[in-house]
């Protein structure tokens, strides 16, 4: 049974602030594994990294965690799927820092292309015995029959095999004659489109040993085309409209064209034969012939340039030309057979690939566009790097990252906008291209018109004001001579109090209490409303303002937030209790994973509350029943489900202590009508959340998905960013 990748992270309480370097650390390891000195991140762990299907980074341009909590109810998908969240330090140039800002690429000399015979350009390996080609074939020249795949190799690499259960109905070429070293070679390549049936052949080419094209036909698929994949296949709907040729016609023609001792040559030929639904006993696969370490494969485009000095699959052309690809694969096989393994190994292809990829990144940074990096000139020798950027490392391993969005980088690393692209267009492109890439960065944006209309300072003040209201409760009425100290003591049992003031504008005195954590305010409303405090039966309620009308909905959604799953809040602790004391007291609770004891970030003293995180949600439910009324060191505990246990706790503290609105909001404050622009913005955010949901659902299982709110960092305003991450499991939810 195939293993599933899993992610664990210590992002509880105060350990949830992640630097750019730490984020880079995660993405590098997820994409590269142990290659290129990539190591497990210091702040989280990916289990079974090699089983990851891919990495997708979704960047919500010009948005911060302020936006996430301002539009918390609209981000329905994000808060229900991603259990791991972290705070990001703001950056003035987020995309450049993600791609490796500061990488010191200094090309020395350039050449128009890579050649296959120059020993001066790339040094020969000092020990050819270590080369995977030599280890596989030895150094001596051999005939072509030494390089045809054995039956076991065909089975291992998913070639259609005669008599195999999965090949029922496949057509056998009947080329059963004994092969010799003089048997004829034929190059074969197909282009496929995605149909309701799967991958179906839409273009077939066959070339002979002299490179002459024997067959070059368009094919009408059996079922409806779902995706033409025009950028790769070169096929359009218009091209297939007049086509009458069917797969059965191609099968018949191929059987007639191939002599009984024919050897088929192709690059990853198994995919072509599977699509053709044909079985052929003798094949040379150039993706396996030019062997690499750890099962990796060179791309046909690279081999054609490095070995043959030919440019194929050019960006200017619409899709691949199967005749060109078939001819390239054939010539590569002929070169290998004629020159022998030793000569091929001396080309030092791994070094050539490293050189090409680094040169590509260096020379394309001025025009790095979302659709990906384009191959241009190559370096004469590897550049000197002071700090390899992330894209460099990706491309060195042959992974061509997909970059989609409204932004691109200019040569200085500064971001420039491409406003002609909408979120809908980006989504459509992502749905098509993300499955074809192992590393993707998708950028969405609310657009400059929305960012400008809702400046960060104004947005910050709205969120801060609402947060203050949610942390505040009003209690009363009390007698004129009531004891304020008794009130503070009773309400303090619900959690740490930031401020307590007497409201004298009313007929009888009330008390306004602002807590430091949301759970404390909610606990006070739930446990003390209708209770007798300081000799009076009181009512406990939150402020009534326009912004607070959806408070109950917000509290309920926070309880259901996946980040708070299995976490409970406990109040009423004596401040003399240490973390060790609490761990001992709570040790009998089943499946307790972590205890977080909040501290005052200025004095360093811990608060009279804590958060308990359990391995299983049902264990948290059981603990909640036990803890209510539990006495620890003479102190009676109060507990409830957590509302802000993770990185939100720290963010609330920062917002609370930077509160510029000292007066807060008074009871029955004027209810402002929600402006049309804000209503429109909420709809926009909701649509954005839907786009992410649609993209996320399209991802393969075992894909690491990271959603980033980059934050804002300018001379006028600064807001921290937010990251959400998880590995998609079979159920569509992020796995732990």
Automatic annotation (TrEMBL):
It comes from the Eukaryota. Pfam families: RNase_T (PF00929), RRM_1 (PF00076). The keyword Hydrolase applies. The keyword Hydrolase applies. Keywords: Exonuclease, Hydrolase, Nuclease, RNA-binding. One of its GO terms (molecular function) is RNA binding. Residues 471-545, 566-644 form the RRM domain. One of its GO terms (cellular component) is nucleus. InterPro entries: Nucleotide-bd_a/b_plait_sf (IPR012677), RBD_domain_sf (IPR035979), REX1-like_exo (IPR034922), REXO1/3/4-like (IPR047021), Ribonucl_H (IPR013520), RNaseH-like_sf (IPR012337), RNaseH_sf (IPR036397), RRM_dom (IPR000504). This is REXO5 exonuclease.
